[in-house]
């Protein structure tokens, strides 16, 4: 299938946003979601209010950095259901969708844009496919990777379209949205923060 006009629809921090939809009283408060790894509990996701907390941290690290945070055990079945509904809502507008990691869906715009009266109207419809509190971001590009980076750098509730090829688009971008927190920390300690630096 051609990827000449591909859109990445991205909800960052989906577990936190799903829990806040389920428990509205948690909105605006520091929230940390933890998952069990044997006898250890590690951070799966955290809200912006939980300052200093990052994915992969241990529970003692969380309590030291944000002692007032609300801790919730990860509910993967619930998050999967929320993600499934997100994909279904997108599919009502663009029937061909491809689910990637949690919170990330790809779809193709080229054939459907004329039906909506243009690409801009189709993108506007896609932005309405997810509740506003989830802050859906849309990236449009000529490749999946470039579309993902565009979505990851878009403001919540907005779309970003790039005409650049992947290499030109990515060279100056931060590596942070593209790698795990652990790998990110190692590269930052080495002074590497952009894809251009990594490729040098």
Portion of residues in beta strands equals 15-25%
Structural shape: elongated
Radius of gyration: 18 Å
CATH class category name of the largest domain: Alpha Beta
Count of individual beta strands: 8
How many domains, in number, for the residues? 3
CATH fold-level label of the largest domain: Alpha-Beta Plaits
Strand order, largest beta sheet: 5-6-1-7-8
Helical percentage: 25-40%
Give unreliable regions as ranges: none
- Alpha-carbon distance between the termini? 33 Å
Helix and strand content put the structural class at alpha/beta
Mean pLDDT: 85
CATH architecture of the largest domain: 2-Layer Sandwich
Descriptive report:
This protein has helices spanning 14-22, 59-65, 76-91, 119-127, 144-153, 166-170, 181-189, 195-199, and strands spanning 6-10, 31-37, 40-46, 70-73, 97-99, 104-108, 137-141, 159-161. It has eight helices and eight strands; from the N terminus they run βαββαβαββαβαβααα. The strands form two sheets. The chain has a five-stranded mixed beta sheet with strand order 5-6-1-7-8. Strands 3-2-4 form a three-stranded mixed beta sheet. The mean pLDDT is 85. The chain has three domains: 6-12 and 78-162, Reverse transcriptase/Diguanylate cyclase domain (Alpha-Beta Plaits, 2-Layer Sandwich); 15-76, MutS, DNA mismatch repair protein, domain I (3-Layer(aba) Sandwich); 164-200, no CATH class. The protein is 35% helix and 20% strand. It is α/β, with parallel strands linked by helices.
């Amino acid at each position: 299938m051609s990827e000449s006009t591909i859109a990445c629809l991205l909800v960052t921090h989906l577990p936190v946003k799903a829990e806040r939809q389920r428990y509205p009283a948690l909105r605006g408060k520091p929230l940390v979601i933890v998952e069990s790894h044997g006898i250890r509990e590690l951070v799966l996701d955290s809200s912006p209010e939980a300052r200093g907390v990052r994915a992969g941290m241990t529970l003692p690290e969380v309590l030291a950095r944000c002692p007032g945070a609300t801790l919730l055990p990860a509910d993967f079945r619930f998050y999967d259901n929320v993600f499934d509904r997100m994909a279904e809502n997108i599919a009502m507008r663009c029937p061909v969708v491809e689910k990637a990691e949690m919170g990330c869906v790809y779809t193709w715009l080229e054939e459907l844009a004329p039906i909506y009266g243009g690409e801009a109207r189709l993108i506007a419809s896609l932005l309405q496919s997810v509740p506003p509190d989830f802050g859906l971001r849309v990236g449009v590009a000529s490749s999946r990777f470039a579309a993902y980076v565009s979505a990851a750098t878009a403001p919540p509730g907005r779309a970003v379209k790039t005409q650049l090829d992947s290499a030109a688009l990515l060279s100056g971008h931060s590596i942070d949205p593209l790698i795990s927190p652990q790998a990110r920390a190692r590269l930052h300690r080495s002074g590497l923060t952009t894809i251009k630096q990594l490729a040098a």
